[in-house]
Amino acid sequence: MRYGLDFGTSNSSIAVAVDGQARLIAIDPLAPNPAVASSVLYIGRDGSAHIGAEATREFVARNAGREIVRTRVNTGKIVSTFYGDEWVQFDADVQQPGRFYQSLKSFLSDASFDGTNVFGTFYTLEELIAIVLRAIKQRADAAIGHDSGAVVLGRPVHFSDDTTHDKLAEARLLKAAQLAGFTDIQFVYEPIGAALEYESSLAREELAFVFDFGGGTLDFSVIRLGPQRRVKADRADDILAVGGVAIGGNLLNEAIMERRLLEYFGSRAAAKTLSGNTIRFPEWLLAYLRSWHTVSLLNERKTVQFLREFKAIARHHQQEVDALLCLAQKNYGWELFNEIERAKIELSGALNTEIRFEREAIHIREPLSRRSFERIISAQLGAIEAAMERTLEEAAVLPYQVDVVLRTGGSSLIPAIQAMLERKFGAQKVKKQEVFTSIVSGLALAAGR
Question: What is the pTM of this model?
Answer without folding.
Answer: 0.83
